[in-house]
User: Fold this.
Amino acid sequence: MKRLVVLGGGESGVGTALLGQAKGYDVFVSDKGKIKDKYKHVLEHNEIAWEEEQHTEPKILNADLVMKSPGIPDKVPMVQKIKEHGIQIVSEIEFAARYTDATIVGITGSNGKTTTATLTHHILNQELNVGLAGNIGDSFAKQVLEKDYENYVLEISSFQLDDIVDFKPKIAVLLNITPDHLDRYDYKFENYIASKFRIAENQTKDDFFIYDADDPVIVKHLEDHPVQSTLLPFSLKKIIEQGACIENENIKITINNSQLIMPTSNVTLEGQHNLKNAMAASTVAHLLKIRKQTIRESLENFHGVEHRLENVLKINRVQYINDSKATNVNATYYALESMDAPTVWIVGGVDKGNNYEELFPFINEKVKAIICLGVDNEKLMDTFGGMVDVMVETQFMSEAVKIAYKIAEAGDNVLLSPACASFDLFENYEDRGRQFKEAVRNL
Assistant:
């Protein structure tokens, strides 16, 4: 019996453990931290061996295969030892994909993954049997085990792509590449770029690669490292023969001789970046033969995802907006770009080597006050100190919202768009966003 060791007892880890057990592996789950009670119950109910707050070497280094959760960096000593022993390490998407013949749509990028994956699923779900997994919802492995959909839309992070071997989506989508997570890539942008492009590395000419032709990083990398798949670019600026572009206020998608044309006003999501997300999702749907009318209607009735430019409440004519999912500067760039009123900006958290300069034009133009919400706000204070009249520090969400309430006047926005990870004060960005919403409702 082959032995599968799962590092990390979270959603992807436990899903992999269940699928591994069903496929005849002797499974062991090991987590350096604490495993949540809900996952422990699942492991115990299924009689899967596990340990927490430690990695017992003899129980790990006798593995035939190791599935590593995406949150665990390669430089961790245990991971190094596994590699020294010549044991194959895979990610959950690699493991689960081995056990399904489904058509896979893989979506990656520095920003917009969740919105695009959710929107793509929303469109496909009208006519196809389709699951949504990856970085979102129930794990891919668990869905392969329990549902076995005919199609999957996977939101895939660079960390998940780092540990693929044969994984290949029928349709790969690369939305954009901006510096993010550089702490995991030796602070080398080119390492991070290469990681994102792994989504297409196993594709053949029968597969499709949808990408942003306006993104200079993607275009340059494609010139230097061509992919085998059929290219379907999308662009807001250029005319595209095969792919998607904008012509006379219409989105025009051309694949072979089939065309789909719809007004940009069909897209309910606001902002230029969401127009691109909609083009990417519609191109996938058009490829998979979803009816044009269905695509148009789906774009009209889709209202976005939680924690991404989510309107919470209007109080005294001040709009409170939760963009907690903005964990890097580029995401916050989109948020500030879409503000159409003076804005009180709540920012801060764990800085991943951020360069805030690209935000300067918006600070001058739109931001009237900055509230720094983090354990260490020094870099923010140094960077933006001279640019706004009001700059405040706090370590509590409830206090940040109360300060914003005092500063904001009728017609203003209060925007939580942290540009940083959340782990200094919160469990994750969802926890941060929910605390913000709760604090707003308690005003």
